[in-house]
Amino acid sequence: EPVLDLPYPGSPVMRILFVLTASVGLPFFLLSSTSTLIQSWFARINNKKSPYSFYAVSNTASLLALISYPLFFEQAWPLHKQAMYWFVIYIIFAISITWIIFKVNQSCLEISQDHNFQADHLMGKGVGASKDSKPSLKSYLYWICLSAAASVMLLSVTSRISMDIAPVPFMWVITLSLYLLSFVFTFVNIPMNSQKLWMVFLIIALGAAWLCLKLEGSFDVISNILIHSLILFACCVFCHSRLFFSKPPSSHLSSFYLAMGYGGAFGGLLVNIFAPVFFKGFWEFHLGLIFCAVTAMIALFGQKILKQYYIRLSGIILLSFFAFLISIDLISNIKDSKGSFRNFYGLLQLDHAIVNNVRVTKLYHNSIMHGLQFSTDPHRYEPTSYFIKESGVGLAFRFHPNRKSGKKINAGVIGLGIGTLAAYGRQGDDIRFYEINPDVIKLASKTRWFTYLKDSKANIDVVSGDARLSLENELESKGLHRFDIFAIDAFSGDSIPVHLLTKEAFELYFAHLKKDGIIAIHISNRYIDFEPVIQALTKHFEMKAIVVETFKEKYYNSRWVLITGNNVFWTDPNIKSSGGVLKKSKEIKLWTDEYSSLWNVLK
User: Fold this and answer.
1) Do 153 and 205 share a domain, yes or no?
2) Per-residue confidence (pLDDT) for residue 218, from 0 to 100
3) Residue 592 domain-assigned (yes or no)
């Protein structure tokens, strides 16, 4: 917590890097260097076995930890206990390393020549280094390119699946697992680890990638995820196998891993920093595929993976062909990117259509529709999609006791979208929106496509930044807002951010809410059931809640939960007939800032 209170630069990426560096930077650096150190020490005391297999062991352990965390550790212990146990294990690790250093110094042997097995895997003339020579600059650049290509594919496929295809929880676990698994398969000297096999696998994957791009929208979600997982694994396993088969003698393994680290960092910078600023789509996926195809062609030209000339030439032609087709699709995407806006928070796209001779403009965040507005009167002023009059939040605005008695309404809203809820504002009302994405604010307030904010009769305020942090700061600087209605409609992909659904978050909401105020939470989700989370919160705060579902159209079904202690609101016949009780499907532990688990609420 003290780290989060330190001053930091304004960019979200720089904030994250700053916090991570300040909190876990040093122990992470020490841990990440351990694998290289262990391999180097092993090479000094044993000149007959390969130290590189330890890298496969290291990634196997990382894979097990990755899978076990959401399944066990996250559910078993709150964060402070996890940190305590981690600290104990880290101390044991430090003691073990100290003991290993002592043993290595006792057993240290001079190595006069490299491992005998290495002769079979020396690099060829294309980008190689001889057995006793220092790796060339060309070798280092090749290693950096291979590592960067795999890193770009990992991040771009993860983004494409979780943002563009299906915002399914834990998809990043699957993609990162495949990335780690590719190291496990390739950094071992087994018959399955064949350069020819991985080359053929890559060519098939590039063909599948082109079909996926060409026939976008033709595959169901499961098929799309499986195909993209296959593409990711094929690209990573090829790049990592090339790294293994072009590795230097063990005397230079430190610089080899350093080059791999540089490549991974370069790939991360390209996808996480460069792409959101300069790209208007997820084009790094195309670039990663082309990058892999080029590195494969270099391998076929220089390394002579396939000995027969005509087979090698066929491979080069196929790689060139698929790289060309993917490039054509990339150019087409760039030409069609008008009306797209991308930043750190994802991709925003405008979709214009004509319905009954009236223009309708929709706003999509990645693959999720976040609002629509008609361009002409009288429909232009009507709340639409998830916020129609029959929706939970619509009922809260229409039948709040203040509205019926003619008093003004003071409302707070987390998540701006296109500003649809401003349509419920009347003369004298105050509606305060909290929105983290600056591009969303620009689209909702400064463009001709969406006019809800401009047309509203209420006094509109839009606060830029994380809603919870903004509310906490306002509590200290401005005091209580005393909201009559507080709506939570913040979505990251297709899901509410977890930190907005914890006990501490609701303590903050209730502090800003009037005693008889209403909290409206949008819980529509295809993959997560948030009702048990809300049920645990209402039980803790001893509040009553109902669920309001609307089924207007296929894509605009909505589920809202209304929470209040206002008995006048509950006795309104319109509310009684519109809502249902929270279902008691399963009881879960109350979410707090110390504990939360999406695994327990998956549908």
Assistant:
1) yes
2) 76
3) yes
Is position 310 within any domain?
yes
Residues 452 and 564 in one domain: yes
Q: Where is the domain boundary, 78, 111, 144?
A: 111
Percent of the chain residues past pLDDT 70, beyond the cut: 91
174 and 38 in contact (C-beta within 8 Å)?
no
**Residue 509 is part of a domain; what is its CATH number?**
3.40.50.150
List, as one string, the DSSP characters of 312-363: HHHHHHHHHHHHHHHHHHHHHHHHT-TTEEEETTEEEEEEEEEETTEEEEEE
Confidence bin at 404 (pLDDT 50/70/90): confident
Find the range with the poorest average confidence among 56-60, 284-288, 388-392, 577-581. 577-581
Amino acid making up residue 558: S
Contact assessment for residue 296 and residue 237, using Cβ atoms and an 8 Å cutoff? no
Give percent of the chain above pLDDT 90: 50
Domain boundary among 271, 306, 337: 337
What pLDDT was estimated at residue 590? 94
Laid out side by side, the sheet with 410-414 consists of 459-464, 430-435, 410-414, 483-488, 513-522, 558-564, 544-550
Residues 292 and 265 in one domain: yes
Residue 309 lies in a domain: yes
Query: For the purposes of burial, counting CB atoms within 10 Å of the CB of 62, is it exposed (0-12), middle (13-18) or buried (19 or more)?
Result: middle
Is 140 found in the same domain as 105? no
For residue 295, pLDDT beyond 50: yes
Q: How confident is the model at residue 367 (pLDDT cuts 50, 70, 90)?
A: confident
Q: What's the pLDDT score for residue 374? A: 92
**Partner residues linked to 216 by β-bridges:** none
Number of separate domains in the chain: 3
Q: What CATH number is given to the structural domain containing 309?
A: 1.20.1250
**DSSP codes joined into one string, 39-94:** HHHHHHH-SSS-STHHHHHHHHHHHHHHHHIIIIIHHHS-HHHHHHHHHHHHHHHH
Supply the mean pLDDT for the chain: 86
* Ramachandran area for residue 371 (φ above 0: left; ψ -120 to 50: alpha; else beta): left
| Domain that residue 41 falls in | 30-111
